[in-house]
Design goal:
- The protein contains 2 helices and 9 strands; from the N terminus they run αβαββββββββ.
- The protein has 120 residues and is mainly beta.
- It has an 8-stranded antiparallel barrel.
- The longest helix has 8 residues.
- It is globular, with a radius of gyration of 13 Å.
- The N terminus is likely disordered.
């Protein structure tokens, strides 16, 4: 998994690249992605069956369904925002998540673990 992150994060020193649908599929599907957010670390699981769950730093656990949508992905949270779409970019050795509509930063990838590592 470390080599996957290294490969996806590799690139020009200052070039920002939006991950393709194929790159998103490899990065997310079947994995728990730990995202450093302004409020703390949030593990998010992206099931191969389209289910998703996120343990937010404030103690709330969101549950929903996710799909890859062009150069991003969207989640319909059952107990949160609907059609919450995220753009994933790589630059300067980091993978960043941002709101697809507003561009507001959501966080950066800390680590990726195969499976539903947090039993979300």
């Amino acid at each position: 998994m470390v080599s996957l992150i290294s490969t996806l994060a590799a690139g020009g020193a200052s070039a920002e690249t939006v991950l393709s649908a194929e790159g998103l599929d490899v990065l997310l599907t079947g994995h728990t992605v730990y995202i450093a957010t302004p409020g703390g670390e949030a593990p998010v699981w992206y099931g191969a069956d389209g289910r998703s769950a996120a343990a937010l730093p404030n103690g709330v656990t969101l549950v929903g369904t996710w799909t890859i949508d062009g150069d991003g992905y969207c989640v319909d949270w059952e107990n949160g925002p609907q059609n919450s779409c995220t753009r994933v970019t790589k630059s300067d050795g980091a993978i960043a998540f941002s709101d697809a509509a507003s561009g507001e930063a959501r966080g950066t990838v800390v680590r990726i673990v195969p499976g539903n590592a947090e039993n979300l």
